[in-house]
Amino acid sequence: MFRMTVGNGLLQRCNFSRCHRWCQGQQLVDRLGAGVPQQGVMHFTSGAVCVVSRIPASFLCDKFGRRWPVIGGLLLMACASGCIPLLRSWIQATVLQVPESVGQTFVFTGIVPYVTDLWEQDVEARVQASSLAVITAELGQLVGSPPGNVYPGADVRCRLRQSGVLGFVCR
């Protein structure tokens, strides 16, 4: 299925990667015993943290430039992703949403202005910059992934091959 999407461009690879990541997320949620209400709490926490951290992230991007907040956000996302194998309950997963969401906010606050600053006529550059935001978030999660099996029955080669970011490397 992944090889069929390779020829159709980056957007479909990213969509496939999101679908694959959602399936892995469902396996993780099942392993932690989180039902629908608990998943709602986790999603609400993620959204609330993104909203609250948007102003400090914007302030830091203005004060220090966009590079350092983006690097800090990537490191936060990588650390949070590296802690996934240590999770034993849905409450720990909810707490882990805080650094993940803060990191994601810093990354998108630093990168999205590049998308909006582009010329309106240059559609290809706008699409590439939008893809850069998605790829940066995926790289932050991929860098933090431990080399071992995080999920029961998951093979790290399969995860790398099916990732939208490194799919072209692992064909």
From TrEMBL:
Signal peptide: none annotated. One of its GO terms (molecular function) is transmembrane transporter activity. Pfam families: MFS_1. Transmembrane segments: none annotated. InterPro entries: MFS (IPR011701), MFS_trans_sf (IPR036259). This is Major facilitator superfamily (MFS) profile domain-containing protein. It comes from Eutreptiella gymnastica.
